[in-house]
Amino acid sequence: MKTLYKMPEAITERPTTYCPGCPHGVAHRIIAELLGEMELTKKAVIVWPVGCSVFGYYFIGTDAVEAAHGRACAMATGIKRAHPESFVITYQGDGDLASIGIAETIHAAARGERITVIYVNNGNYGMTGGQMAPTTLLGQVTTTSPYGRDARANGFPMKVPEMLATMDGPVYIARAALDSPKHIIQAKKFIRKAFNAQARDLGFALVELISSCPTNWKMTPVEALERIKNEVLPIFPIGEMKVNEGVA
Amino acid sequence: MDKKVIINEERCKSCELCVDVCPKDVLRISERLNPKGYHPVELFDNEGCISCGFCFLICPDAAIVEVRRPVKVKK
Ligand SMILES: Cc1ncc(C[n+]2csc(CCOP(=O)(O)OP(=O)(O)O)c2C)c(N)n1
Questions:
Q1: DSSP annotation string for A138-172
Q2: What is the rounded CA–CA span in Å between residue B29 and residue B22?
Q3: How many CB pairs under 8 A join A and B?
Q4: What ipTM was predicted for this assembly?
Q5: B15 — contact with chain A (CB < 8 Å)?
Q6: Closest approach of A39 to chain B, Cα-based (Å)
Q7: A24-243: what fold?
Q8: What does the pLDDT look like over A146-175, one tens digit per residue?
Q9: What is the pLDDT of residues A60-91, one digit of tens each?
């Protein structure tokens, strides 16, 4: 028998605390695989967020710190500047990165910090029970938009990669999705380039991963991935928004 | 033949994503219970499996641990 796919070493034995069908685990696996393939596991420091992935350091076995809500990019900046030889990744939800932490994110990008941001967008605040996030779609019902998100009252969904791609600091900006095997393979390709950006000391990189939240969307895991395909991806299209020379 | 898909039943949360993406429908949710109280997935048709790895790619819980393909032995 020839092994085609195998769990990467950096994934720990500890079962995750995520709900059944939550794609956070898929994002973890992709990161762990790339760290292994690029021989970065020992150098890696992952800055974990507040949100469902708050216990991430139990699930990927690298050095890690836990940031206050939204402050991952600020902490990562300090770690990378103090230890330039380390490989610093932030792992953040959309509530964490796009809401309370948007200032830290934008300024880290503008400064062109040599860090890699993995931004998991599931369209709501998962951990606290499914409140509206900056990324919630218009019309989407959440616990704090019970009649559906209304542009007049709640504003429009925020597209972080498109915004950061207009800046000079970032060298790689992309959006991928975790809704199908095909898109998951593509997500890994994108994250590899984002890792290259830091490994080659080029600058700031961010990859948004469109994810689902079956529990708070009140859907089965399969229905939630269908919703990504039918409703989320038309608003948040997949693709590379900024690719500077040298990252590919 | 050895199993083409190695499953860690204890980690499975019965989300059914692997069953849904399997192009050959060789996976199913079993009747058994694991220590977490979920019915873990099982490979019921090893012959029918084409080792495409879709189940591995979509599994969020590292329950699909490994996917393997038989190699032809030269006589
Ligand atoms: C300073 C501060 N404000 C608010 C909270 C409450 N809180 C915990 S998790 C969370 C939202 C997380 O949502 P997201 O970043 O989208 O991650 P997810 O849980 O969906 O993965 C909030 C608001 C907190 N822990 N700290």
A1: TT--BTTBTT---HHHH-----HHHHHTTSSSEEE
A2: 13
A3: 83
A4: 0.95
A5: yes
A6: 21
A7: Rossmann fold (3.40.50)
A8: 999 999 999 999 999 999 999 999 999 999
A9: 999 999 999 999 999 999 999 999 999 999 99
A95-133: per-residue pLDDT in tens?
999 999 999 999 999 999 999 999 999 999 999 999 999
Cβ within 8 Å, pair A20-B68: no
Which residue is associated with the tokens 């090893």?
Answer: B46
Amino acid at A180: S
Q: What domains are there in chain B, each with its CATH number? A: 5-67 (3.30.70.20)
How close does chain A come to B34, measured CA to CA in Å?
A: 13
Q: Is the pTM of this model over 0.80?
A: yes
Helix then strand then coil, % of chain B, to nearest 5: 15, 20, 65
pLDDT at B74: 76
The alpha carbon of A131 and the centre of ligand 1 are apart by a number of angstroms equal to 10
Domain extent listing, chain A: 24-243
